Amino acid sequence: MVYIGSYRREYLFYNEPSTPPSQNPNPHSISINPNSNFRAIIGLRLPSVCKLHKMALIDTAAAMIFTDRSSSSSSSTARLLIYNSTKFQKFPNTISPFRRSNSLRFGISSRTSSRTIITHCSSSSASAIQVNNETFAKVIDGKRVAKDIREEIAVEISRMKEEIGIVPGLAVILVGDRKDSATYVRNKKKACDSVGINSYEVRLAEDSTEEVLNHISKFNDDPSVHGILVQLPLPSHMNEQNILNAVCIEKDVDGFHPLNIGLLAMRGREPLFVPCTPKGCIELLHRYDIPIKGKRAVVIGRSNIVGMPAALLLQREDATVSIVHSRTKNPEEITRQADIIISAVGQPDMVRGSWVKPGAVLIDVGINPVEDPESPRGYRLVGDICYEEASKVASAITPVPGGVGPMTIAMLLSNTLLSAKRIHNLR
Ligand SMILES: NC(=O)C1=CN([C@@H]2O[C@H](COP(=O)(O)OP(=O)(O)OC[C@H]3O[C@@H](n4cnc5c(N)ncnc54)[C@H](OP(=O)(O)O)[C@@H]3O)[C@@H](O)[C@H]2O)C=CC1
Ligand SMILES: Nc1nc(=O)c2c([nH]1)NC[C@@H]1CN(c3ccc(C(=O)N[C@@H](CCC(=O)O)C(=O)O)cc3)C=[N+]21
């Protein structure tokens, strides 16, 4: 059995009938021989890839692989499309990987099935791909873009270290013991390590009081700290406003300080920092050459940390922006007019295919855990947008996971570098 790649919590293998399945796949040494009589196996990501009984089998007759040359990346990218589900076997309690992901992306090169007609609708990098009269949105690969950005940041940081002997520092304050927050903080630390940013972490008890403000004050005065992040949400007894106000605006790498938000909202003024998630959404649009100017954009959600700043940023990019929120009547009538939708709601699969104008670009910020007994964690993450439906209508779409999430962390690193450069007058 040979591992081909993974995408959206699924591993893909192929199995030459002559190869005993007990031979473990080696993810790094693969060669695909499309002429061989192999079976493709798509399985949910499991701790042990050998649990074949939990995997769904398809015949390779139902699968084809082709190279996607419209990618903005210089690397060659292949997609695997499964276009014939007749031989697909669904296992009890298993979300069908076929239905969840018609389009799988791998960093491998491959070849095109002669049975299938593939058309790129336009040369733009947001072009949908047509296969046998079905269109599939281009996948906006936030994970890959975030990796590119981390590499760019790492280069800048070594230059900084060489030129002025300074390394950027990020302080993260985590209050309480929410599991998801602890995971995010751990991921942020890992990301800092990967680019050479020093990270300082403070963990405080759920019932702490003035300690948060004391630590903020200490970090405000510490010259080795260039960015301060207070992980949200805070315990309900804490005054979030007072705490976010206490972070000095020059180190507010989250961009949540009211002064920074105010500057973002004003024409002709520049905030010192733009909030990471909305900044990541716009960066994805830029890196995929998706035009914003003059387009109709709809933001779903109006929170201080995502929806509202996303709408402000789109407006600064000369889009005509509407905001949909929980009191909006007939939201689908508004979203259907959008060339670009940014959804930040927190409702799994709320945005259906019928909410989307054909050819629209969809940025899904939502991170929603849904129960999944097959997943090692007992749940999996889905976005606000029903990927299966919307990816057949849109021209481009971000997946969850692997879309906006990794970009948020990349933008945090970028803001920390920006801060260190500004504080040390480095261009
Ligand atoms: N990918 C990433 O990096 C990040 C992802 N997230 C995720 O994004 C999502 C949103 O986060 P956040 O902004 O903090 O959430 P909030 O709960 O603060 O805000 C949600 C917004 O969605 C609106 N809303 C709720 N229900 C509906 C509905 N049925 N129809 C239309 N609008 C609705 C609310 O409207 P109203 O204002 O009227 O209440 C509110 O404005 C979450 O899933 C979160 O986990 C968040 C941060 C970063
Ligand atoms: N002060 C503050 N700043 C924040 O930016 C902030 C915050 N508080 N509180 C919570 C939200 C949420 N958030 C995410 C960051 C990365 C992923 C991310 O990387 N997600 C991965 C999946 C991770 C997984 O598998 O668990 C992905 O989408 O691919 C998700 C969500 C930042 N937030």
UniProtKB/TrEMBL annotation:
<protein>
    <submittedName>
        <fullName>Uncharacterized protein</fullName>
    </submittedName>
</protein>
